[in-house]
Amino acid sequence: MTGRVPREAFDQVIKATGEWLQSLGFTPRAAVLRIQAQGNCGIIEFQRSVKSSRDKILFTVNVGIVCGDILDSEAPLQDMQQARFVHAQIRQRIGAFLPGHPDKWWEVTSSTDADALARELLELLLKDAVPFIQRYLGTDSIISLWESGQSPGLTDGQRADLLATLKAKRQGGGT
User: Fold this and answer.
1) Looking at residue 75, what is its pLDDT?
2) Which one of 16, 28, 57, 76 is CB 3.0 to 4.6 Å from 6, fit for a cystine?
3) What's the half-sphere exposure (Cβ side, CA atoms, 13 Å) at 161?
4) Phi, psi (degrees; rounded to nearest 5) at 60
């Protein structure tokens, strides 16, 4: 559908994407879709650019996993339904799943076909982002990822510290 103001089209893209992903267990809330398992939370979050204006919205999609056992004490959550991309210990921008790994931003204007854009996003999310989340939603998978030396969105030092913290908590030692 075209002819909408950019904000309406952007909201429609988020709404349609959320409705489609609900069947996979995601819960939409504003610009964040969440799925929970094993005390962890997978996140798909729409991020508007500061370069957006009344006539044009630029946005990207962030994908992350929050490990409930090692939530940052500086950003405590009352429950995982408040988790945002900023809380994630595993983080990727949607462009990381594209060939060449560009930092991908979409533009929404009054002429944007919101339904077509939502379908484009859903295809990318279903092909790459959702499987990524599902792969690392379990704590054992997070440990295996970090033990392999990989740490999407973290420095190697952060990875090592979080891995040590997670292992200590799993062994009953806390931090």
Assistant:
1) 53
2) 57
3) 8
4) -130, 180
Mean pLDDT of the chain: 90
Res. 92 pLDDT band, cuts 50 70 90: very high
Residue 142 burial class via C-beta count within 10 angstroms: exposed 0-12, middle 13-18, buried 19 and up: buried
Would you give the DSSP letter of residue 4?
S
DSSP string, 39-105: TEEEEEEEEE-TT--SS-EEEEEEEEEE-GGG--TTS--SSGGG--GGG-SEEEEGGGGSTT-----
Write the pLDDT tens digit of every residue in 17-38: 999 999 999 999 999 999 999 8
Note whether 19 and 26 are within 8 A (CB). Answer: no
d(CA 71, CA 65): 11
Do 112 and 2 contact (CB within 8 A), yes or no?
A: yes
